[in-house]
Structure formats: structure tokens, C-alpha cells
Amino acid sequence: ETRPEVFAHNLETVPRIFKRIRPAFRYERSLDVISQARAFGLITKSNLILGMGETREEVTQALVDLHAAGCDLITITQYLRPTPKHHPVERWVKPNEFVELSAEANEIGFAGVMSGPLVRSSYRAGRLYKQAQEKRANI
């Protein structure tokens, strides 16, 4: 049987602006995809992109939602507008907020967290995967 080492499904944003940012997807369905992958025994990973109009409280709730859905690994990054046709950057997140969100995600219980303005979805994937394996071995 072959299977992925990590199943990644990027939530990307919070419920209030989800439909505007990801019109072809639904927030709850994305959480369900992660739950199903976790139920299948896979290590799961997601990503939140900040700076598109979300509040700090909404980011916290999205982290709680992801963890409750069974997400093991999380990356948190700054939104960078790819073209003028895309959603504008509504704010540049300060580096200390990424540090705070990393600590918060660790407190929530994620097995691995990478948080910073230039972190990308696969950033340090090997390190995060190892952290998830170690956490599962200790459960």
C-alpha cells in the first residue's frame, strides 16, 4: 500500500472572508477533508495566510478549528499579492505577531509549527514531519 507521508490541505484564511478568497471552496468542507485524512491515519498539514483582512481573533479561531479537525502541522505566512487582479494586501503582519502565533499554535497542540512572513507551505517540511512522527510516537 502506498500513501503520502503528509496530507496537506491549505485552509489559507478565516471563515468571514473565505468565500471571497477561495470562491470554489468551503471552510467547513476543508476542515472535513483534514478530518478524513487524519481518520485514515495520515499526518495532516495546513497553512494560514495572513494580511487579507482577517482579525487576530479570527486567526486564533481558525487555528483552534484546524487542530480540532485533526491537523498536525501548521504553517503561517504573509499574503503576497501575485498580480494586480488578485486580492490586495490589507496589512503587513509584524514579525512579533508571527512569533506570538507560533507560541499560540504550539499551546493549542499542533505537533509542528512554522510561522513567519516568508514561510511557505512546504517550508522545512522534513523538520515538521519528524516533529509529527515524534509526537504521535509519544501519544
Task: Name some characteristics of this structure.
43% helix; single chain; TIM Barrel; alpha/beta; 139 residues; 15% strand
User: What is the terminal separation in angstroms?
Assistant: 24 Å
CATH architecture: Alpha-Beta Barrel
> Kindly state the mean pLDDT as a whole number?
94
- Count the DSSP helices: 5
Q: Report the C-alpha radius of gyration, rounded.
A: 15 Å
CATH topology: TIM Barrel
Largest sheet: 4 strands, parallel
How much helix, percentage-wise, in residues? 40-55%
Low-confidence stretches: none
Structural class: alpha/beta
Total beta-strand segments:
4
User: How would you sum up the global shape?
Assistant: globular
- Total separate domains: 1
- The amount of beta strand, in percent, is 15-25%
> CATH superfamily assignment?
Aldolase class I
Q: Major sheet: order of its strands?
A: 1-2-3-4
Please give the CATH class. Answer: Alpha Beta
Helix and strand element order: EHHEHEHEH
